[in-house]
Amino acid sequence: MTDEYGSDFITITDEDGVEYELEVLAELEYQGKTYLAVVPAAEQEDEELEVSLLRSDEEDGEPILSAITDNAELEAVYQLMMDQLYEDEE
Question: Of 16, 36, 70, 85, which has fewest CB within 10 angstroms of its CB?
Answer without folding.
Answer: 16
